Amino acid sequence: MSNNIDTNSDNFQINDLQNKINTIEEKLPAILDDFKKYYVFFNKNPTYNEYQQIYQNLKSELDSISGDLLKIVNEINSNTQKISDSLLKINILIEKEKAKNITLKAAEYDVNNKYKGSSTMIDEYKQIYNENYFNNVFLFIGIIIAIVSLVKVFTGKSTINNVNSNLSVKK
CA dist 24 to 72, 75, 80, 136, Å? Predict the structure, then answer.
């Protein structure tokens, strides 16, 4: 499961907000200077319509800038909330993946232990096989030696019996 975060759109919004803030920063000092100047002129000469008109225009422009700043702050708060929500979703996904990782590590540990165990069993069975093989070979050699010995013993007795019988016949 992947979380789609549109970074291009986010970068565009950041650049757009930054441009709006830069524009306000450029305009604001001149407007404030004019506002201060015409505020004084208007309060000294409240009946002079030109000062009153310029003062009202500057005041409405400051109100407009204040409204724009409020909109920017709201957009930033909204974007911050969206980012926070996205990060929470990503964090949940990370926690799920961590749980999967723990499960997979446990399974991998079991597999490795079974492999090591089966490898050990194979080695032990090879050793048992070799021991039994050598026992069987030595047993076979022993049987052959016993047969050869028995044959010699019994064939030797028959020759002795033949010699004894030959001796008794000659007497």
Answer: 11, 16, 21, 100
